[in-house]
Amino acid sequence: MALIHKLLNGTYILRKCPKRSTSLYPFLGIHFADYCSSSLQKPVAAPGKASSQRKTEGGLQGHHQKEVSLDITSPEEKPEVSFDKAIRDEMMDHFRRLKDEIVNHWIGPEGRPLHEVLLEQAKVVWQFRGKEDLDKWIVTSDKTIGGRSEVFLKMGKNNQSALLYGTLSSEAPQDGESSRSGYCAMISRVPRGAFERRLSYDWSHFNTLYLRVRGDGRPWMVNIREDTDIIQRKNQMYSYFMFTRGGPYWQEIKIPFSKFFFSNQGRIRDVQSQLLLDKISSIGFTLADKVDGPFFLEIDFIGVFTDPAHTEEFAYENSPEISPGLFK
């Protein structure tokens, strides 16, 4: 979908450019837009009006000012637009990212030595120290089905945490179809590699989820999705409860991965299966306690670690009558 978006974006820009190309390239993206943007600028004023124009543009921000001011000596001179160079740069960027992924795979995850990763006992996966950390997450609520709940995500005090807040409303939408409502959620984005390939997290060397949060006493549901199919399974996930105690103090929550139970479309399944820790695609937090009113959840970091005292592999049982396929 991301490549289709780039294609449509590039086609729109191609219509705006004064020079048209007879062939349509499949990877028209950011670099293509950069090369075409120069030909879409307003004509530069005559040399006599240059000084007044500079004064007018003095209040613009630095980045915007660089886009507006062009290095052209006369109106007759126009910058050359090279479509081939734009596409070549786009492809080189994707291949450069692919090369980094291959090199990191041979060296070790994230470019670190493999033996160092194997001996690692704890790891911070997500922390919130700037806006770029918030961009790795999305928020959603029952507004997508006509509900009235609202949820927002912003940086906390001194940019040392993320603050998830809003208002929960269990009032059902008046559409004649939905009978229940009242949820808000925060979900991490699926990591992407070169050519917009879906990637996954490998937590197979750890056995516990580790969070440092500060809430208002509400119970949350922690959801983990695994990516084992070609198509992402949207309605299937592994979940467990997170109880915040409220108050001004931070709390450290440790949830063993063996406690996460399997559910589909919000219902706990009779046949339980163990979470595949080497194929984690995303993690999320859902509030749906049917208590209308404001809420907040402040998160310092989300990580994983190895608890040597926890030896349980799976907390739930399956019988031959319920899941005969597991006992063949």
Could you explain how this protein is built, in words?
The protein is an alpha+beta fold and 328 residues long. It has seven helices and 13 strands. It has helices at residues 2-16, 30-37, 50-56, 62-68, 83-107, 114-118, 131-134; strands at 122-127, 137-141, 150-155, 162-168, 184-188, 208-215, 219-226, 236-243, 251-256, 261-264, 267-268, 280-287, 293-305. The strands form two sheets. It has a seven-stranded antiparallel sheet with strand order 2-5-12-7-8-10-11, with no helix packed on it. Strands 1, 3, 4, 6, 9 and 13 form a six-stranded antiparallel sheet that branches. Strand 3 and strand 4 (162-168) form a beta hairpin. Helix 2 (30-37) packs antiparallel against helix 5. The two termini are 41 Å apart. Residues 1-8 and 10-75 have low confidence and may be disordered.
Widest sheet: strand order? 2-5-12-7-8-10-11
As a whole number of angstroms, the C-alpha radius of gyration is 26 Å
- The termini sit apart by 41 Å
- Enumerate the spans where pLDDT stays under 50 for 5 or more consecutive residues: 1-8, 10-75
The average pLDDT value, as a whole number, equals 77
For the largest beta-sheet, the strand count, sense and barrel status come to: 7 strands, antiparallel
Structural class category: alpha+beta
Number of helices: 7
Share in β-strands: 25-35%
What is the β-strand count?
A: 13
